[in-house]
Fold each of these.
Amino acid sequence: MLSIHKLTKAFGPNVAVDQADIEIANPAMVGIIGRSGAGKSTLLRMMNRLSDATSGKIVYEGCDITELRGKDKRHWQSECAMIFQQFNLVPRMDVVSNVLHGTLNQRSTVSTVFNLFPKADIHRAIDILERLGIAEHGPKRAEALSGGQQQRVAIARALMQDPKIILADEPIASLDPMNAQVVMQSLRRIHEEDGRMVIANLHTLDTARRYCDRVIGMRDGRIVFDGTPEQLTTGAARDIYGADDSFSEAATSTEIQALDRIPA
Ligand SMILES: Nc1ncnc2c1ncn2[C@@H]1O[C@H](COP(=O)(O)OP(=O)(O)OP(=O)(O)O)[C@@H](O)[C@H]1O
Ligand SMILES: [Mg+2]
């Protein structure tokens, strides 16, 4: 169980996240939506402790995450892997080595400096790549892969940490609809098959509705919606996005559903 209590982050006078309260029972796939600047990334970064909260608490299985320091904080960061819009791979390094870097915080400095990876880790990296359907690209440089393939490498790297939680900040924002679909399906499968919690910031309504069990809507740093995809009506969405009657769902659509209807 992940409990977030009155979590707040202020940048000077600007309150990016304002007293957020969220309870997520394991396992869940949760989508966070809201317009640009609503506080979605800031919320995710606080969960991972990339950014410290101004006030409030994050409690995971009885442990106060906001209080962790040093080794304990690093351990938490390996328990909740982060995936970013821009993949954050090492472009000139091969795919398998990129994935192996997911184990970095579990290894000694010496083995890191000399790029020595245990055989078992290499096998595991290849297994994970296979699971994500990209093992054949293992020897290639990361930069030689398509965006969708690179994002799957980033997911593989996250899985190397064997995380309990995967935090994804706009994982498909730079991808075309077809690649976006493959990446979202990968995240969904990881959630369903491994029972990992997945929390993804998403900029499109249809993606959140389609892949998530629960959707959280943020507006001006506040949580203004928390419900099932069915409860996320056009009216509720208009409220989250702060739009008037001219609000159109199409403006927040990746047209993934339309793509689904194209026969293979
Ligand atoms: N490091 C920072 N320093 C100052 N202000 C920041 C910082 N990071 C975020 N903010 C501000 O906090 C608010 C929330 O930003 P955040 O990046 O969390 O929004 P977001 O919902 O992720 O937006 P987007 O959809 O554009 O990614 C914004 O007003 C932003 O300008
Ligand atoms: Mg963001």
Note: Confidence is low (pLDDT under 50) at residues 255-264.
Amino acid sequence: MRCPFCQNDDTRVVDSRLAEDRDAVRRRRACEACGERFSTLEEANLKLPYIVKTNGDREHYDESKLARGLERALEKRPVDSEEIEHILHRIKHKLLTCGEREINARDIGELVMNELREVDQVAYVRFASVYRSFQDVDAFSNEIKRLQAETVRGRKASRTKAQASINANNTPPKR
Ligand SMILES: [Zn+2]
């Protein structure tokens, strides 16, 4: 690492230890040329990206806002609050690890829809009809048809899965 005082390329680590919060490493360095000492802090770059709304405004990721949207979509649906927590957790994890500094609100909507499609089709359609502005009635009814086709396939699959888990001798299905 370059010396910030004389720009010499050669600096040497004289001490290295975990920072107080232990998520970072603090290093003490000494410049071989001018002898100045300085500290560096190395930490994982895990920051939530800014959300860019369709009107171009940037805002911080608001998990409680997303939670409210999910709860609205899942109202009176057989999905418990623990599952909502899991969805929120998975979305946050994706945002933390995506490596982007900003992300479009639309893309978050897509993440939510992908999650809901797996969990509850009715909630998915509710959310999608609000979030993804379907171009026209045809686009909306095409989506419904596609879902119905998927549900039929899904039922067959889950029947097979249920049978498999019975066969697996009471092993609870893993999440
Ligand atoms: Zn120096």
Note: The two ends are 44 Å apart (CA to CA).
